[in-house]
Design brief:
Layout lengths: L18 H6 L9 H34 L2 H9 L1 H22 L3 H34 L6 H27 L2 H31 L4 H33 L8 H11 L1
């Protein structure tokens, strides 16, 4: 697989924040040092570039699973190092900004949000690699069409969550971030449905156990990608509103944010 970087400037799904629009928004303010402004903009752009690469990895892994494409699955596994190296580079840049600029308040929240976001993106890449490895194993078997159909539906929903979470990060859009968190409930329901279905298959035919286990592990990885996409949205809310919503019910989050608004 080619090294497909998808910077927000070239991805129509993302609205690339220009220097003027970004620093005129309510979420980013001017600093005395213009270089500092450029550094903050750069790490946001690099996060979205990493997000584009991870999104590509997930899409390729799911395609390899659905089409039993061993070569594509191998490329996903091989290209995982690109995600890892980019995550390390962004993390080092954040560390240098902290050391040089000693950020406070909103700037510090941005750095923290970036560090947490790239960690989740790297782990989403790991889940894509895991799905690709399962695809290589399933290529030697013949799973039921219905099994892959349900899995593809879950995968499509999860990819949408990931894309929307990156959109919310690009715009620092709290409303969109909340929508993603809400949509994750549907992903959980689809995941639970697949698990029940595979358990039924295994009970009816013990010879289907290896295939069903692979399907279940794939579904688990997809569900985790959905959860990590929600994490990214939580970091968006943390940065914009200064509210840490982890381990809080969705209803309580909406109530708290209404008070903040």
């Amino acid at each position: 697989m080619r090294f497909l970087l998808r910077p927000i400037l070239f991805n129509p799904r993302f609205i690339a924040p220009t220097m003027t629009s970004l620093f005129d928004s309510e979420n980013i303010h001017h600093h005395i040092s213009k270089q500092y402004d450029h550094e903050l903009l750069d790490i946001r752009n690099r996060v979205l570039t990493l997000g584009g690469l991870v999104e590509e990895q997930v899409e390729s892994a799911v395609a390899a699973l659905a089409e039993c494409d061993v070569d594509l699955a191998k490329r996903v596994v091989t290209d995982d190092y690109k995600v890892n190296s980019m995550e390390v580079a962004i993390d080092e840049e954040c560390t240098q900004i902290i050391a040089r600029r000693q950020p406070a308040a909103r700037d510090l929240r941005l750095i923290v949000a970036v560090i947490k976001t790239i960690t989740d993106l790297e782990r989403i890449g790991d889940e894509a690699k895991r799905i690709a490895r399962i695809a290589m194993d399933l290529a030697d078997h013949l799973p039921r069409k219905s099994q892959l159909t349900d899995l593809q539906q879950l995968a499509q929903h999860v990819r949408e969550l990931l894309r929307e979470s990156l959109d919310s990060f690009a715009r620092m859009d709290v409303d969109e971030a909340l929508r993603v968190v809400q949509e994750d409930r549907q992903v959980d329901r689809e995941y639970e449905s697949i698990m029940r279905q595979q358990i039924t298959y295994m009970m009816e035919n013990p010879r289907s156990i290896p295939i069903s286990l692979d399907i279940m592990w794939s579904a688990r990885s997809l569900e985790r990608i959905g959860d990590r996409s929600c994490n990214i949205c939580e970091y968006v809310i943390y940065y914009v509103k200064g509210k840490n919503i982890r381990h809080i019910s969705l209803e309580q989050v909406e109530k708290d944010l209404r008070r903040i608004y």
